[in-house]
Amino acid sequence: MELLALNAFSDNYIWLMHNGQDALVVDPGQAQPVQTALQTLGLALRAIVVTHHHADHTGGVPTLQQATGASVYCPHFTTPLDCPYQSVADGMVLELLGYQWQVLGVPGHTASHVAYYSTQALPEGVLFCGDALFSAGCGRVFDGTIAQLQQSLERLAALPAATRVYPAHEYTLSNLRFAQAVEPGNPDIMAHQQDCQTLRALEKPTLPTSIAQEKRINPFLRWQQPHIVQALRQYDADYVTQHGAFATLRHWKNQFQ
Ligand SMILES: [Zn+2]
Fold it and tell me: For the segment 32-42, what is each residue's pLDDT rounded down to a tens digit?
């Protein structure tokens, strides 16, 4: 299987997976980048999978569905998509491009966010996680809760270390600046920052990442470490006492410039 990052808006990626004939896309906020890629590569779009309801992940879905007849899968939305679709939820198994995909409920960023995980489509395992997990960060809480976000990230962290992780945004460098503020002495963060600066200078994605990599650099998967809890107390001891360490980390990131 081939995987391509299609640029959308200023910092979204629409992931396109294909076998040379059939394709699936993840979170097409815009139709045009997908239509161009399908045409250039001579691919038939079979499936559109959506992780959550935000417009920068769904805006292109009706146009693509109508143009290609692709099956659309998405979690429960308060405002339904303007095209035929199948609702998915945690625990469901889908067959896409001939491989099995598990639907993982990962709420927090939004109340009904899902991720799509397959151990068949790539030998290492592949995870499309939308805005639940970013490289070196995670999505902020909109209509989910901080407790849901904490639990969802714990769930993703428990996937096999080699799993290839495909988030929906190029936020890595700004996330790494925050990670460095939280953990100034972490050599993996510094090394990764240099690698990512090189990639971005060449206009290449810093993604995919892996679960193993995120466990080395992502404060949202590392916050239980004593030196990070210490840094969180230094940032705002009262907030830690009232809301806990994880919520303090998210609060700090929201304020971070
Ligand atoms: Zn979002």
Answer: 999 999 999 99
